[in-house]
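Translate sequence into structure tokens.
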Amino acid sequence: MIDEKPVIEDDTPGDRIVSINGKRYIELPDNSYQLLFAWFAGPRHACRTVDDSVHAAMVTMTRFRERREDLRLVDDIVNSSLSRHGLPPRPCGYVWYVELPDKLTPDDVWCAVRLDCRPGVILDPLLTSAAMRDAVSELYGDDF
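Result follows.
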């Protein structure tokens, strides 16, 4: 976990790029596919910061309860998918990031994972894991 606050470099919806400790990262959505990639990228290329945005956005107790229920549902869905891949649940309450290599865009990173990820396509855990490992190796030069 990193204590430093991320500095937003590009706030494009879905492709937010931040700087943390002098490195560029892509902010990950609550999406099991991209969080799975962060798992394979490991602590050398992925990190998390405390998510304080939820607390700042809450105005009334009613909205706070609704937001917490929404977050629990998202966590359940994401953790269920990670579990299918044999991974532990992600701790909640954090924003997750994966390193963005120099001169690459977020699209370059996701294109390195060569899978058919259209809505409704069910990903085979073994093929997905292999594709994620290959992409991490290609992008960061890491061997497994």
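Note: Helices lie at 32-41, 53-57, 61-84, 106-112, 125-140.
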